[in-house]
Amino acid sequence: AAIAIIAFPSINSYLEEGKEKTFKQNIVEIEKASKKWVMTYGNTVEWNVDSETGKRTYELSLEDLKKTEFISNEVTKNPLDDDEDLMGCILISVSSSDVYTYKFYEGCDY
Q1: Number of H helices, E strands in the chain
Q2: Span 106-110, mean pLDDT?
Q3: pLDDT per residue over 32-41, tens digit each?
Q4: CA separation for the pair 90, 57 (Å, rounded)
Q5: How far apart are alpha carbons 80 and 56 in whole angstroms?
Q6: pLDDT, tens digit, for every residue of 5-63?
Q7: Is residue 1 pLDDT above 70, yes or no?
């Protein structure tokens, strides 16, 4: 019984680390899928433009990204929350020199 008491925290910690790693990998996959989405649909949407900097942004919802062929439903599960669906947006930014950045935000909170 003493071995189980000592081993349980170690196993639990290992499982939690695995969930965190999977979560981070899912976010990377979501951002990669967003890049593919921009190449296909980026010219069909209205971008927000900052009149001072010329920076363009677009808020791509995870729901809209899931409607495409670029991402699987498995990637949009949250391993940290009993595999509930992730909710959020990918903020796609384009600098005035055409450098693209992609950042996922849970709950679309920037």
Answers
A1: 2, 6
A2: 81
A3: 999 999 999 9
A4: 10
A5: 32
A6: 555 567 777 778 889 999 999 999 999 999 999 999 999 999 999 999 899 999 999 99
A7: no
* The pair of three-digit structure tokens given for residue 46, joined into one six-digit string: 């209205």
Q: Which amino acid is at 25?
A: Q
Q: Quote the CA–CA distance of 30 and 26 in Å, as a whole number.
A: 6
Using only the alpha carbons of the chain, give its radius of gyration.
18
- Determine the length of the chain: 110
What is the DSSP pairing of strand 84-85 with strand 88-94?
A: unpaired
Helix (H) or strand (E) holding 36: helix 2-41
**List of residues 6+ apart from 68 with CB closer than 8 A:** 33, 37, 40, 41
For residues 98 and 42, is the Cβ–Cβ distance under 8 A? no
Spatial neighbors of 27 by CB under 8 A, at least 6 apart, are: 104
pLDDT for residue 85 is more than 70: yes
For tokens 């991402």, what's the residue?
71
